[in-house]
């Protein structure tokens, strides 16, 4: 123990040395950073700066940042665009309803997994339930379409029950249900992994003490497990709130179609159609699409900052 | 152990829930498999639920006879192998110095990396950068480089590295190993669980990627198989290419779609169980302290 304390004081000592000497001494370790930092500057930070084209007229072409300043022109444009507001509303509606379903369901599933007494059964359920997380979105959406197609098992089952067939993929009313159900299918198991990790870190003596006090299994889960994983719950909640503006872009892009834009078109797919194109997109409106994308990103950043702030104040858990 | 009958009731309920979850998760796979081995007629009649009806392997023969299918598959393997190598090594190289508390500049570099978790340039600026400014369109680099490092993965690996016992590195230093030697010969071999986790994450991401390819690859010859699959699933490929039956349809048969899906997912499903034990371990250690 004393040695460790000594080590600590030694390692603290160089902090008073000038920075340049510290860098010179540790330059080999710092040299690891060179290529990754260049990567971050080019592929992460340069695109952030590239958002400048939201304030300039840009339609491709040689000039890096477009031809002229237009100020908030493109922002005013989308602000008056009903298609933008539809996408904005759909984004928030899909995210929040998905969050409301997924959050408790995942937490309960994690608690139930934790109560399994057979390690073998637990491992098996985990292995199976993590699998969909690794399946390509193209296949996930392909599966959805096969499952709910007019000749698929769900419609056949409805037929047996004497209910008329439903063309789920074509009906706007069904889009949120498909989005949420498939999200649960793909993410339920994977969503528990951080909870289970946090549960293994809970001191088993707490459970023993609760047992001695005569606490039932349910009470032990409520008074020991939940408080033990509260930081994890909060961190995931903050991240989810920050993610409200970001729908599952790939899934929506593959799952929606012009008939279901009404409930399915979200900000990211709207940006895609305006900027890049696609089946029936316009494409080429780089500046307009960038303005919408920037709005999406900034609101997302504000949301995660606010959630982080509230969590820090109330539960002392925060991301930074 | 005299747990009450209500506890036994709970155990029963819990087993029931687990069974439902397992069935709910596996059923779509089972259905796809059954569909891929069934006749088209049986599917249109709604007869297929669990097992193939009018068993046939024609769709497999049809797809496996297509030379372009092998080409796309080969492209996917190439992108996945190269991308995974770049991604895992870059992530580890970045995470290592960030895990060293003694590096004073980490006060700057860690937030520099973390910030990209919460804010990004967005689709269009990224597209303009890669396709127009860097002229990476129709090159393999457009597929493997832009998404190579994710801040989240860096944090997982950094946490894992920070948890390694300091004494081991100290001993290696005393034995005369330099910084690079310690990293490659001591740190990396000790980090197999987290590196296997990163390997799986990267492999799956590159294997499944179709969107990047759809943005940047104009020449069909360089498509990955997932993009080809996307065209099949959404009926973008002309149906004559897949005329397996006499029925002239505007849709590609469901049997072909499900066969293509299974053939694309197969390698992931096969590798997954072997790596699964590593990533549970890797995620545990990487996340608990983080």
At the first level of CATH, the class of the largest domain in chain B is: Mainly Alpha
How much is the average pLDDT of chain A? 89
Report the β-strand fraction of chain B as a percent range. Answer: under 5%
Helical amount of chain B: over 70%
Largest sheet: spatial strand order of chain A: 1-2
* Category by helix and strand content of chain A: mainly alpha
Total number of helical segments of chain B? 14
- The H-level CATH homologous superfamily of the largest domain in chain A, spelled out, is MetI-like
Overall description:
The complex is a heterodimer of chains A (about 325) and B (about 290). In chain A, about 70% of the residues lie in helices and about 0% in strands. By secondary structure, chain A is mainly alpha-helical. Chain A folds into 2 domains: about 20-70, no CATH class; about 80-315, MetI-like (MetI-like fold, Orthogonal Bundle), CATH 1.10.3720.10. In chain A, strands 1-2 form a two-stranded antiparallel ribbon. The longest helix of chain A has about 35 residues, at about 80-115. Chain B is an all-alpha fold and about 290 residues long. Chain B has 2 domains: about 1-55, no CATH class; about 60-290, MetI-like (MetI-like fold), CATH 1.10.3720.10. In chain B, helix 4 (about 65-100) packs across helix 8 (about 150-165) and helix 9 (about 165-175) runs antiparallel to helix 10 (about 180-190). At the A-B interface, helix 2, helix 3, helix 4, helix 6 and helix 7 of A face helix 1, helix 4, helix 5, helix 6 and helix 10 of B.
What's a quick, concise take on this entry?
The complex is a heterodimer of chains A (320) and B (290). With 320 residues, chain A is mostly helical.
Architecture blueprint of SSEs:
The complex is a heterodimer of chains A (320) and B (290).
Chain A: H1 2-12, H2 19-25, H3 27-31, H4 34-50, E1 56-57, E2 68-69, H5 73-79, H6 82-115, H7 119-130, H8 137-148, H9 153-160, H10 175-191, H11 193-200, H12 204-212, H13 217-242, H14 249-255, H15 261-264, H16 267-275, H17 286-315
Antiparallel strand pairs in A: 1-2
Helix pairs in contact in A: 5-17, 6-10, 6-11, 6-13, 6-16, 7-10, 8-14, 11-13, 12-13, 13-17, 16-17
Chain B: H1 5-36, H2 40-44, H3 58-64, H4 67-98, H5 106-118, H6 123-133, H7 140-144, H8 151-163, H9 166-174, H10 179-190, H11 192-208, H12 211-216, H13 225-233, H14 254-288
């Amino acid at each position: 123990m004393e040695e460790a304390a000594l080590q600590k004081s030694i390692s603290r000592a160089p902090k008073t040395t000038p920075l340049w000497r510290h860098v010179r001494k540790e330059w080999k370790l710092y040299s690891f950073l060179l290529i990754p930092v260049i990567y971050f500057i080019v592929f992460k930070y340069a695109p952030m700066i590239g958002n400048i084209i939201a304030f300039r007229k840009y339609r491709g072409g040689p000039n890096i940042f477009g031809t002229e300043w237009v100020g908030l022109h493109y922002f005013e444009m989308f602000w008056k665009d009903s298609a933008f507001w539809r996408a904005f509303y759909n984004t928030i509606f899909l995210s929040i309803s998905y969050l409301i379903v997924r959050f408790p369901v995942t937490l309960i599933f994690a608690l139930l997994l934790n109560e399994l007494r057979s390690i073998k059964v637990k491992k098996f359920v985990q292995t199976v339930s993590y699998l969909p997380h690794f399946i390509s979105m193209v296949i996930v959406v392909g599966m959805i379409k096969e499952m709910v197609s007019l000749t698929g098992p769900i419609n056949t089952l409805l037929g047996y029950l004497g209910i008329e067939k439903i063309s789920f993929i074509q009906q706007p009313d069904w889009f949120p249900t498909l989005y949420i159900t498939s999200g649960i299918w793909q993410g339920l198991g994977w969503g528990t992994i951080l909870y289970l990790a946090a549960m293994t870190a809970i001191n088993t003596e707490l459970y023993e003490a609760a047992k001695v006090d005569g606490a039932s299994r349910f009470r032990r889960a409520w008074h020991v497990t939940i408080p033990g994983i509260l930081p994890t719950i909060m961190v995931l909640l903050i991240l989810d709130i920050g993610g409200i503006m970001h729908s599952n872009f790939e899934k929506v892009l593959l799952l929606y179609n012009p008939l279901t834009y009404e409930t399915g078109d979200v900000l990211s797919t709207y940006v895609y159609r305006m900027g890049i194109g696609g089946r029936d997109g316009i494409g080429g409106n780089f500046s307009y699409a960038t303005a919408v994308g920037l709005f999406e990103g900034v609101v997302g950043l504000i949301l995660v900052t606010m959630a982080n702030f509230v969590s820090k104040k109330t539960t002392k858990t925060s991301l930074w | 152990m005299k747990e009450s009958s209500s506890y036994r009731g709970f155990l029963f309920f819990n087993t029931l829930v687990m069974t439902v979850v397992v069935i709910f998760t596996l059923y779509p796979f089972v259905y796809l498999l059954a569909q891929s081995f069934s006749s088209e007629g049986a599917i249109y009649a709604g007869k297929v639920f669990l097992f193939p009806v009018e068993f046939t392997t024609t769709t497999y023969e049809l797809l496996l006879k297509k030379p372009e299918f092998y080409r796309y598959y080969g492209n996917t393997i190439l992108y996945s192998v190269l991308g995974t190598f770049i991604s895992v090594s870059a992530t580890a190289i970045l995470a290592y110095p960030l895990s060293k508390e003694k590096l004073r500049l980490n006060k700057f570099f860690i937030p520099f990396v973390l910030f990209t978790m919460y804010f990004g340039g967005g689709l269009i600026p990224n597209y303009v950068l890669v396709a127009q400014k860097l002229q990476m369109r129709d090159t393999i680099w457009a597929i493997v480089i832009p998404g190579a490092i994710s801040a989240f993965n860096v944090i997982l690996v950094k946490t894992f590295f920070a948890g390694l016992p300091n004494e081991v590195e100290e001993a290696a230093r005393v034995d005369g190993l330099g910084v690079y030697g310690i990293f490659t010969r001591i740190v990396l071999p000790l980090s197999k669980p987290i590196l296997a986790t990163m390997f799986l994450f990267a492999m799956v991401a590159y294997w499944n990627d179709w969107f990047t390819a759809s943005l940047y690859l104009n020449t069909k010859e360089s498509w990955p198989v997932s993009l080809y699959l996307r065209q099949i699933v959404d009926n973008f490929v002309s149906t004559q290419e897949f005329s397996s039956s006499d029925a002239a349809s505007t849709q590609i048969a469901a049997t072909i779609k499900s066969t293509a899906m299974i053939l694309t997912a197969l390698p992931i499903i096969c590798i997954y169980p072997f790596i699964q034990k590593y990533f549970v371990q890797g995620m545990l250690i990487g996340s608990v302290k983080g």
